[in-house]
What does this fold into?
Amino acid sequence: MTDFPLNVIASLGTGQAFFIYAVIGFAFGWVLESSGFGNSRKLAAQFYFQELTVLKVMFTAIVTAMTLVFAASGAGLLDYNLLWVPPTYIWPGIVGGFVMGVGFIIGGFCPGTSLVAAATLKVDGIFFVLGALFGIALFGETIGFYEHFFNSSFLGRITLSDSTGLTEGTLTVVIVLGAIGVFAGAEWLEERVGKIPRAQAPRWRYGAGALLILGAVLVALNGQPGSAERWERIASVEQLRLDHREVHVDPLEVLSLLHDDALRVQLLDLRGEFEFNRFHIRDARHLAGSPLPELAAELIAMPANTVFVLIGRTGDDMEQPWRALRAESVPNLYILDGGAEGWLRRFTNPSAPPVAPRLALGDRHPASDPNPRLFEGSFEPKVEMEIKRAPSGGGCG
Amino acid sequence: MSARFPVTPSTGKPYWNPYLGGIMLGVVLFIAYLITGSGLGASGGMNRLLVWVQDALMPEHVDQVPYLLKMAGGELNPLKNWIVYLTIGTIAGGFASGLLSGRSHWETNKGPQIGKGTRWILAFIGGALMGYGARLARGCTSGQILSGGAVMSTGSWLMMIGVFGGAYLLAYSFRKTWN
It folds into this structure.
């Protein structure tokens, strides 16, 4: 099992966890200020090709963090599936980004840099922060008028690897090489436009660049863990849970979960289409044929109080899908004991006539949505909610 | 007179070399991902601090606007979110760094051709656009471009094109503000 990311809020409580976030923020603010990001002239010079500090700092940070993240993930230390990757909304992102760019050239800051500018008593920074707060407030008041656009072109958690078909390791190498090429171009521009002699730049940057390329190549050679490898890492714990039937949930418990207002229950029906059409539990999602690892990203992104229940014919046929989804770090994942057939038997009045085998009842059978008060019985409760390790929102959530 | 670029602080110690700053920023970002599973950000924390004030001044209004409701409706406390503490830490870190390096004092950074008043008005307008755009894009430069870029979010890389496109497109029109 990978140890990182930690679940700081669940393991330390909000007090200490919030303190850790404040310490990380402190380091962030310190680095921003020290790099000159509290000075609007330094930031604006970027857009006149006089001084490309913004580009150098941002891209050096991106490639450094990227290489470290994928190195740690490849080494089995960090679970990439549990990291918050900002979900993609193509057009709101590009249009919002464009508005930000216009704000950047007019105002001279971005939100993070304006905070350190204001903290170091730059009056233009203080006005920018006030403006940003005004803009944020205005957004809250006006987004209701075009919410449709705000939620459009949603692609979920997609990464450059999904979009290009290249592996994360190859992309790291490509992006690192691209960044170094861009830095060379930036230094050339600075010499021509900003009259900054290139000899001023420290020589150690060549060594740092070489080290970064070496790191990226090692990341690419080491590769990222595949499903089988991810399962091997957790098998010693998770296979025992399967063997001891700790994840096979009694139909009565599932019924009680469905009526628990504090939980969201996702019923994932993996049977064939014919069987699903014949009978399924109300609100079950039919997933036959969907590749499970791709589904995992969507499931992980769901709110932390979601329970996932796999539904097969008998229940025991769900052990392989359970392993596949657990290997991808889907939390709170269980199997309906006895499967759909067991459920149908359990919640059908014995005196009712049996369902004709060729009838497609779907969720119109009374057992699709049984009344919990009519079915009393005891069961051994198995579901324990694991608090999600990754926070449910990103840096700007 | 010394060269105009790179821009130097008017007082105090010089800024770090940009590559050093970038490496340090990358390491901080990696540690944030390693420990917390999410990256850095700023506009989200500003948003919640603002909504906290709005909720104190006009709670009925907050309860009527869906976007605010999600953060501060009913019993929800907009400050009970990690991003708020990250943002407070960012302000404190910038303050401490500026103070210890002697760069912290009252001043307005601007181009030589405009007055302070003009610069303040433009900073406010630019800030408003930036704040609005950052919420529309679901993240600011730190949360999307930096953090999302490092973990290869496709949307973050697309947004980067929008930000640089918008800034470079209007750079010529606003050249007098800065040069």
The mean pLDDT of chain B is 92. Chain B has two domains: 16-103, 110-178. Chain B touches chain A through 133 residues (CB under 8 Å).
